[in-house]
Amino acid sequence: MTRHASTYPVTLQAQLRDKLGWYAGGGALLFVQQLLMARRDFFVRDAVDAANQLRAGDAKSAALAIILVSIVAAVARVLSRVAIFSAGRNVEYELRAVLLDRLQRLGPAFFRTMPTGEIMSRATNDLTQVRLLLGFGILNVIASTFAVVSAVYVMTTVSVRLTLASFVTLPLLWVVTRSFSIRMFSRTKENQEAIGQMSDRVLASLSGARVIRSFGLAKSELDAFEHHNANYLEKSLGLARIRGSMGPVMGAIAAAGILVVFYYGGTLMERGEISPGEFVSFWLALLRLTWPLLALGFVAAIVQRGRAGYERLATIFQAVPEIESGELARSTPVRGELSVRGLSYSYGDKPVLRHVSFDVPAGHSLAIVGRTGSGKSTIAALLPRLLPTPAGAVFLDGDCICTLPLGRVRGSIGYAQQDAFLFSTTVAKNIGYSLDDPDSADADRAIRTAAAEAEVLAEVESLPEGFDTVVGERGVQLSGGQRQRIALARALLRHPAVLVLDDPLSAVDAKTEAAILEAIERQKKDRTVVLITHRIAAARRCDQIVVLDEGEIIERGTHDELVAAGGLYAAFASEQELEADLDALDLGEDAA
Questions:
Q1: CATH 1.20.1560.10, the chain: domain bounds
Q2: Is the model's pLDDT at 588 over the cut of 80?
Q3: C-alpha distances out from residue 514 to 204, 398, 439, 510, 560, Å
Q4: pLDDT tens-digit map of 49-59
Q5: Which of these, 298, 290, 197, 172, lies nearest to 242 by C-alpha position?
Q6: 8 A C-beta contact, residue 456 and residue 516
Q7: 131 or 245: which carries more pLDDT confidence?
Q8: What is the three-class DSSP state of 356?
Q9: Percentage of residues in the chain with pLDDT exceeding 90?
Q10: CATH 3.40.50.300 occupies which residues in the chain?
Q11: Is the pLDDT of residue 531 over 60?
């Protein structure tokens, strides 16, 4: 049964406990491997001494034993890597799922402090470092521990004094490793932060390529990128210098220990205190011990990079969502009755809405009209809780939306935003985004019906590949009006109980506007409609109209009532009527 991302462990300690079976299995196989390698060293001792004493039969038997033990040890080694690497890959899979789940639940405040490029860097580079830590890093820690125990056992069996002599450089090796590890951690963190900054710059440049070209600022953009690129290069070179010097320094220390072993081991053989076979066995064990010691720096680098990567991921994991799902269970279908009571909202210290109240009965429509910046779009985003809606301010069928599960709220309130966002896929998949199977025949019919309702069907069919046309990044291949109407079709296809339309007519011509208004008129028969608009032609079709000014409702009523009142709405109506007359006059002159 597939687990939900919210149930996956987040901390490194919890992940280690969760994957303990994989790690224990891999560790057991590594233990068997090192046990067999110790046995191999003793068989080598027997083979060398037998050959030295011209005992051919014993030498052959020992050689066959060496081959058999080495094969079994190699199989155990491969299986141990399968187990531990699988654990690391599973950790990567789960943390990536948790990361996306958290990002989907975090509110606008978080994304104002962390740009997209930085998030992408953490989701790719940093997550890879964590996977290496919990896969390759743990493998080497376990393997090195057992290798040390196995090697020391063989070495002390041969000669305790020679073993102590081989350890003469260990204190220095430990000090050097610790020093490199501390510097590696800080430099790695700086390097990964530099990657995030550079990634964000590249993403911003690509997203705004048309703006950059239109202003002729390509050189300035390249100069800005050069700054981030140079910073990343500097941090990378600093990290490379540490990593590059670590191997030679630790190798030199290990080489000094090897010289001690050969000198003192040769002396012991001359004295007859150890046999040639025992020295070869000791040497093989020392080689198995040397690799873990030399790999200390490599493993330390993996550990420090993984720690630094996890610290950066933890910033997202530990972020507190502004919007929490409610727990009030409701099994009845949503009727669509909407009520707003005393809604106030601020962006930081700047008030945007002040004590806004209105009611929209199920199956009725409301237009919200006002100047730019009056708070219309903020209301549109607060209704489906895309912003942290204050408790006790917005009610759906009599229930405060903050007490309802987010799935019920957002599944019942369809939202078509003014700045239409399209995915970089086909037109059909953008419209059918909410469908389980957008490629089915039924889905195709529903998509075409929604496109027709949004008055974009004919234009989509005229595209080079029709509904299979890829719209490009954020719909760059389409006009603003087409993007807006495709987003409207996507919202209509869901058949929500409440439909919130944020200025759906801002990027269309008069003919298309009239057709969309007819579509909105049809929608009113089946669902509650909240229309955010500055077009009087659209507002007049709604049952009720409220007029916002500086975050407050200053007028409410029907179109005729508000025009007769002679307030702000009447002024809007007069201005737009004059604009329409001037446009008609210009068209008449052009025709003449």
A1: 10-317
A2: no
A3: 37, 34, 31, 6, 20
A4: 888 888 888 88
A5: 298
A6: no
A7: 131
A8: strand
A9: 12
A10: 338-591
A11: yes
Please state whether beta strands 498-502 and 413-416 pair in parallel, antiparallel, or not at all (unpaired): parallel
Return the number of other C-beta atoms located less than 10 Å from residue 180's C-beta.
Answer: 22
Q: Is 456 helix (H, G, I), strand (E, B) or coil?
A: coil
Written as six digits, the tokens of 43 are: 């068989």
CATH topology of domain 338-591: Rossmann fold (3.40.50)
Q: For residue 16, which amino acid is it?
A: L
Separation CA 474–CA 289 (nearest Å): 56
What SS3 state is found at 96?
Answer: helix
Q: Is the pLDDT of residue 28 over 90?
A: yes
**Which residues is 366 bridged to in the sheet?**
530, 544
pLDDT tens for 504-530 read 766 666 666 777 777 777 766 778 889
Within 8 A by CB and 6+ apart from 346, the residues are: 352
In contact, 292 and 372? CB cutoff 8 Å: no
Q: Taking residues 486-500, what's their average pLDDT?
A: 84
Could you tell me the CA-to-CA distances from 528 to 35, 296, 410, 413, 498 in Å, in that order? 74, 66, 14, 9, 5
pLDDT, one tens digit per residue, over 295-336 is 666 677 778 778 888 888 888 888 887 888 888 888 788 888
Question: Using CA atoms, how far apart are residues 382 and 401, in angstroms rounded to an integer?
Answer: 10
What confidence tier does 484 reach under pLDDT thresholds 50, 70, 90?
confident
pTM of whole model > 0.85?
A: no
Q: In the beta sheet, which residues pair with residue 353?
A: 345
Q: Encode 467-523 in three state secondary structure.
A: HHCECCHHHCCCCHHHHHHHHHHHHHHCCCCEEEEECCCCCCCHHHHHHHHHHHHHH
Q: Give me the CATH topology for the region 10-317.
A: ABC transporter transmembrane region fold (1.20.1560)
- pLDDT band, very low/low/confident/very high, at 464 (cuts 50, 70, 90): confident
pLDDT at residue 1 is higher than 60: no
Query: Rounded to 10 degrees, what is the CA torsion of 524, 529, 531, 535?
Result: 10
Q: Are strands 365-370 and 394-396 parallel, antiparallel or unpaired?
A: unpaired
Element of type H or E holding 341: strand 338-347
Among positive and negative, which fits the CA dihedral 209, 215, 218, 224?
Answer: negative
Give the sign of the dihedral formed by CA 139, CA 144, CA 145, CA 149: positive
**pLDDT higher than 90, residue 245:** no
78: Cβ–Cβ under 8 A, 6 or more apart, which residues?
none
Looking at residue 576, its amino acid is Q
At position 460, the amino acid (one-letter code) is V
Residue 113: pLDDT over 70: yes
SS (H, E, C) 14-61: HHHHHCHHHHHHHHHHHHHHHHHHHHHHHHHHHHHHHHHCCCHHHHHH
